[in-house]
Design a protein that fits this description.
The chain has twelve helices and 13 strands. It is an alpha/beta fold. The protein has two domains: 255 residues, Aldolase class I (TIM Barrel, Alpha-Beta Barrel); 87 residues, no CATH class. It has an eight-stranded parallel sheet. A three-stranded antiparallel sheet has the order 9-13-12, with no helix packed on it. Helix 2 links the parallel strand 4 and strand 5. The longest helix is centred in the middle third of the chain and has 25 residues.
Length: 352
């Protein structure tokens, strides 16, 4: 099968692959820029994007705002005209300001999940930035797109479906994940139909992209056959030289076996898929006190007295060489990542 380019309004990615946003510090300018250069869509994660800056511990918000600009500019330089954007979690502290900052620096696209991005259209109004919600069900897609249609007289520029095999936060109840895996194809078809209804209403094409467990070109062909225009991949790109993660983080992916993958409870209030380690065992037994707040989650998502651990601390450990006591988010196919290659080789293999 020859795959068609992914067309998002006036943006055209010759390779219908979006590289999923991975934070903290896993998908920054090197990975996002490299995927965009090869014809895909490169995505920077805004989650504590400024953690490497000297002023991060003093003012994480200011550091993150500065890093949004510098990371984007570096990614675009590498991309050589390719499409680069951001993933912004709805649960983020100062979500609205983060989105507006991404627009200000010139983001081509913004993908938003970990909650329904109800007010996203007003945050990008008047800009060239294309927007996509992350949804996991036809019901969620219908509720959100109906809200956008009624409140803003517009619809999404594209839609990302996140399935139950994805890494990180999942839009499914923990005890329903296996059942959701079995029913996901039917759900994809329903979401595609739902999105098409709103696309027709506004007289535009709204491509749907599937994420979660996509690993091979056969996987891409499968979701295209269900009506999708492309896929989003994250886990597989960790096993590349260009991935911004440190080598010891990548080694955890290389060492992971299928039985090492588990579902953990996140302070965001959603289940998440991660690699089993000392940290994942500790949080099953006790709460880890928060030593310092770095303002990563909105107040309604973070009660310092009751949350099981600080998600920023756990994710920062992953990129600061403390992988035993870190939250190691990964997709269901992480055990299939068994070598460090490069972005071009992966994309060539998937598109050949």
């Amino acid at each position: 099968m020859t795959f068609k380019p992914l067309t998002i309004d006036n943006l055209v990615a010759k390779v219908p692959i979006i590289q999923g946003g991975m934070g903290i510090g896993i998908s920054l300018h090197r990975l996002a820029g490299s995927v965009a250069r090869e014809g895909g869509v490169g995505i920077l994660s805004t989650a504590q994007i400024g953690y490497q800056r000297d002023d991060f511990e003093k003012s994480s918000l200011r550091a993150n705002f500065e890093a949004i600009k510098t990371q984007f500019e570096e990614a675009k330089r590498i991309a050589k005209g390719g499409i680069v954007g951001f993933n912004v979690m709805v649960a983020s502290f100062q979500y609205e300001k983060i989105v507006k900052r991404c627009v200000e620096v010139g983001a081509d696209v913004i993908i938003s999940g970990a909650g329904l991005p109800v007010n996203l259209p007003e945050l990008v109004e008047g800009s060239k930035t294309k927007i996509a919600p992350i949804v996991s069900s036809a019901k969620g897609a219908k509720v959100l797109l109906k809200t956008w249609a009624k409140r803003y007289s517009r619809t999404a520029d594209f839609v990302v479906i996140e399935g139950p095999k994805a890494g990180g936060h999942l839009g499914f109840k923990a005890d329903e994940i296996q059942q959701s895996i079995e029913k996901m194809d039917d759900e994809v078809v329903q979401i595609v139909e739902t999105v098409k209804g709103f696309a027709d209403q506004f007289g535009k094409e709204v491509p749907v992209v599937f994420a979660g467990g996509v690993f091979t070109k056969e996987d891409i062909a499968h979701y295209v056959s269900l009506g999708c225009s492309g896929v989003q991949m994250a886990t597989r790109f960790v096993g590349t030289e260009e991935c911004d993660a440190p080598d010891d983080f990548k080694q955890r992916y290389l060492d992971a076996k299928e039985e090492d993958i588990e579902i953990i409870k996140s302070p965001v209030g959603m289940p998440g898929r991660a690699i089993k380690n000392v940290f994942s065992e500790v949080i099953k037994e006790k709460q880890i006190p928060i030593a310092k707040c770095r303002n990563c989650l909105s107040y309604k998502h973070c009660d310092r007295e009751t949350i099981p651990y600080c998600i920023s601390e756990a994710l920062l450990n992953a990129v600061n060489h403390e992988t035993d006591m870190a939250l190691l988010f990964a997709g269901a196919n992480v055990y299939r990542v068994n070598e460090i290659t490069n972005v071009k080789s992966i994309i060539d293999e998937l598109m050949e």
